[in-house]
Structure formats: structure tokens, C-alpha cells
């Protein structure tokens, strides 16, 4: 895999989950692998995500922290909230459904915390160890969700999201900003579509059947329970709190205030 292909993968990662990455071949691996890291860190002071061949038909994707990553780990330990970990856990749980996942040598994918010796290994069976298409697919299926999980713990967010949140000066505004942040967060979107599939949760519309696989999905992410209606703070569960909707159903749900629930909209459509 050459530098141009690596740059294309980094660009796709940014498009998928809103994170800037750098990548390079890693000749230090026992069998030459490929590594990516956040562009504001390097391979020694932050998390490193690598893919390497194993045996005859396996890719192993690993996440571990560099030798001098103590400040990054401390940052995560100080700032990552229960909700941040909820999203990160959801990513590892989703990976466990399709692949062999090991976290710090254990098969448990929930309840982990980032420490100095933290490491995740995910194994995928492939037909072509060194084919660019297979490598890119493994990165998309496994490495991108791992990057998304750690990005959430570190606190990566778009400038637009930070500006919206800072401008929310009343409680309702803060809650609305948080709902929008969760709906627009590309990492929430990735997880939502991974869990629920590329299909509208109300009308069942499948964009790929109409537009083909070459166009980006038009599905949008909806926060099911409006935060303005929650009396007290509660744990955020991305698996049950988010649902993919087609643009028509998403607009229809928000035509009423408070917004319709997906089940209420289904009843309206079936009248």
C-alpha cells in the first residue's frame, strides 16, 4: 500500500467520523503492518491504531498507547464522562458481534477503562492478506469504530458543534444543543447505522435500493427522546436513544412540538 492510498484512507476516516488522522507503513511489526494516529499526536505520545497480517487468512487490528502517552491517558481519565464511555462501549460491543475482540487479554467488551497498559485486538478472517481492497475493508469495519471510540473519550468535536454549545445560555437551549450534537456527531451516526442498518426506522426506506451503493447514505440520525422532556439526567444509551430516519420521516417527526415518536409517526402513516 503506497502513500497515496494511505492518504485516501485518512481522508475517508475524516469523512466518516470527523477525525484528522495520519498514517504510514510500520516496518517495526514482525510482519509489516500499517499504522494510523491522530494528527495532533504522534506514534509515541498518543493512541496508535494498526493493522497487520496474521497467519494465512487473518488481519489483526490493534489499539494501544505509545510509550510517552501518559498525558493523553491522563486527559482521557480526567474528562471522559459516563456518556462518552457509553458510546465507546457500544462500539466495542458492536465489533464483538462480528469479530474476535480482546481487551487487555479479556473477551469482555464492557466496563473497560483507559490505562497505561490499555490494548484492544480485533481479528478478522480475510481471503487476501495483502490486497488493498481487503485492507481498506478491514480498516472501515474495525479500525474506524475503534478510532471513533477513542475520539469520543478524548473529546474530538467540530468547531461548529463547540460554537453552538457555547451559545446555548438557557437550559432548553443547552438540551437542544446536546440533542443536535448527538444527531450530527458523525461517530453517533456511524454507530447508529451499524446497529440499526441502512434503513429508515419508520417507513423502512433503504436508500441503497433506490440510489445504489456509490452515493453516500441520505439517512439522518434522530434522537428518539427529546432531551427537553427529560426531567432528570439519565445515562445515554446510543443503541436505544438514536434511530436512522429518511429525510421525509425526520422532517415529519419534527412537525409537531413536542416531536412525534417513531411509533406515533408509524400510526399516522398507517391511518
Describe the structure.
The chain is an alpha+beta fold and 271 residues long. It folds into two domains: 152 residues, Yope Regulator, Chain: A, CATH 3.30.1460; 107 residues, no CATH class. 44% of the residues lie in helices and 17% in strands. The chain contains eleven helices and eight strands. It has a six-stranded antiparallel beta sheet with strand order 1-2-3-4-6-5, covered by helices on one side. A hairpin with an 8-residue loop joins β2 and β3. α3 runs antiparallel to α4. The protein is globular, with a radius of gyration of 20 Å. It comes from Pseudoalteromonas rubra. Keywords: Endonuclease, Hydrolase, Nuclease.
SSE diagram, text form:
Elements: H1 3-17, E1 21-26, E2 33-38, E3 47-54, E4 58-65, H2 70-79, H3 82-96, E5 100-103, E6 119-125, H4 132-154, H5 159-166, H6 171-184, H7 186-196, H8 207-211, E7 220-223, H9 238-241, E8 242-245, H10 247-253, H11 262-269
Antiparallel strand pairs: 1-2, 2-3, 3-4, 4-6, 5-6, 7-8
Protein name: HNH endonuclease
Domain HNH nuclease: 187-251
Keywords: Endonuclease, Hydrolase, Nuclease
Amino acid at each position: 500500500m503506497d502513500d497515496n492510498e494511505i492518504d485516501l484512507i485518512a481522508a475517508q476516516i475524516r469523512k466518516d467520523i470527523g477525525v484528522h488522522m495520519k498514517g504510514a507503513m510500520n516496518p517495526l511489526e514482525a510482519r509489516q503492518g500499517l499504522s494510523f494516529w491522530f494528527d495532533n499526536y504522534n506514534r509515541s505520545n498518543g493512541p496508535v491504531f494498526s493493522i497487520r497480517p496474521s497467519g494465512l487468512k487473518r488481519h489483526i487490528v490493534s489499539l494501544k498507547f505509545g510509550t510517552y502517552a501518559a498525558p493523553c491517558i491522563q486527559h482521557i481519565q480526567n474528562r471522559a464522562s459516563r456518556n462518552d464511555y457509553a458510546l465507546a462501549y457500544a462500539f466495542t460491543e458492536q465489533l464483538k458481534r462480528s469479530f474476535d475482540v480482546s481487551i487487555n487479554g479479556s473477551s469482555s467488551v464492557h466496563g473497560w477503562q483507559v490505562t497505561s497498559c490499555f490494548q484492544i485486538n480485533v481479528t478478522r478472517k480475510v481471503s487476501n492478506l495483502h490486497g488493498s481492497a481487503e485492507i481498506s475493508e478491514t480498516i472501515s469495519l474495525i479500525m474506524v469504530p475503534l478510532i471513533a471510540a477513542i475520539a469520543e473519550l478524548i473529546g474530538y468535536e467540530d468547531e461548529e458543534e463547540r460554537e453552538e454549545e457555547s451559545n446555548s445560555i438557557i437550559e432548553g437551549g443547552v438540551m437542544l444543543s446536546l440533542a443536535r450534537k448527538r444527531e450530527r456527531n458523525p461517530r453517533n451516526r456511524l454507530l447508529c447505522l451499524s446497529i440499526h442498518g441502512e434503513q429508515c426506522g419508520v417507513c423502512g426506506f433503504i436508500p441503497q435500493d433506490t440510489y445504489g451503493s456509490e452515493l453516500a447514505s441520505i439517512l439522518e440520525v434522530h434522537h428518539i427522546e427529546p432531551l427537553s422532556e427529560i426531567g432528570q439526567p439519565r445515562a445515554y444509551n446510543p443503541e436505544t436513544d438514536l434511530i436512522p430516519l429518511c429525510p421525509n420521516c425526520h422532517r415529519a417527526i419534527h412537525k409537531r412540538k413536542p416531536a412525534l415518536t417513531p411509533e406515533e409517526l408509524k400510526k399516522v402513516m398507517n391511518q
